[in-house]
Write a structure and sequence with these properties.
Order of helices and strands: HHEHEHEEHEEEEEEHEE
Largest sheet: 7 strands, mixed
Number of strands: 12
Number of domains: 2
CATH topology of the largest domain: Rossmann fold
Strand content: 25-35%
CATH architecture of the largest domain: 3-Layer(aba) Sandwich
Structural class: alpha/beta
CATH class of the largest domain: Alpha Beta
Mean pLDDT: 96
Shape: globular
Distance between the termini: 37 Å
CATH superfamily of the largest domain: Vaccinia Virus protein VP39
Radius of gyration: 18 Å
Helix content: 10-25%
Strand order of the largest sheet: 3-2-1-4-5-12-11
């Protein structure tokens, strides 16, 4: 998914305050599981959340994209990272908290996979453990044919990227066009990203099916809301 953009992913999302989001997350985890010591970040990307979460918890990360994991391992060389699919990964341990942040859940694409991924995360929680997921957009929030343009402006890196929001069934489809400039020259390329569109009820149903009553916060950590709850003891 990020085969061409992994190395400058963080530049694309330079506007996101990972430290503030991570501090809010730790506060919420401690509220629901005061004794929490361990955390798994599913869909951890470049490990930027983990660089802050690891100040408070024994944190580990998992991602399907090898390019993003390479960046994460360089950023956090003392942390453990796993390569795996959030629908299918099987680790030999359970955690006090499992989180899936910045709408990474959308990449599983289908409602069936949404349930599989959430059940798999719950399977990796200890009894009473805390689960939090930042959702992707709801179907009625998605603006089809909306033109989006973003820019990153650093001294030695300039990026312009744009796409038209398309829809294919129950998924959002982005054919993203990038123009990347460095001192070595200017490169143009494309990446296609496809993410599932699910309703509030479908998220709640997936939580319920996995044995967790979902709580919802509309603002969340990054303005996209968040679902969270604890595994039954």
């Amino acid at each position: 998914m990020f085969k061409k953009t992994a190395t400058f992913y963080d530049a694309l999302y330079h506007f996101k305050d990972y430290e503030e989001a991570s501090e809010k997350l730790v506060t919420l985890i401690k509220q629901y599981r005061p004794e929490a010591k361990t955390l798994l970040d599913v869909g951890c990307g470049t490990g930027k959340h983990l660089s802050f979460l690891s100040r408070h918890l024994q944190a580990e990360g998992l991602d399907l994209d090898l390019g993003l994991l390479e960046v994460a391992r360089k950023r956090c060389p003392d942390l453990t990272f796993y390569h795996g699919d959030m629908c299918q990964f099987q680790l030999d341990q359970q955690y006090d908290a499992v989180v899936c942040l910045f709408s990474s859940i959308g990449y599983v694409q289908t409602k069936e996979n949404l349930s599989k991924a959430i059940q798999n995360m719950v399977n990796h929680l200890v009894s009473g453990g805390f689960l939090l997921i930042e959702p992707w957009l709801y179907p009625d929030q998605y603006w089809e044919k909306h033109l989006v343009a973003n820019y990153a402006d650093q001294p030695d890196l300039k990026i312009a990227w744009m796409y038209v929001q398309e829809r294919e069934g129950d998924t959002s489809l982005f054919d993203i066009h990038y123009q990347v400039g460095t001192k070595d020259g200017i490169e143009n390329f494309q990446e296609i990203h496809q993410m599932g569109l699910w309703s509030d009820q479908e998220y709640r149903d997936a939580f319920q099916k996995a044995g967790i009553e979902a709580h919802y916060d509309q603002k969340g950590l990054f303005g996209r809301g968040m679902y969270f709850g604890t595994k039954s003891k």
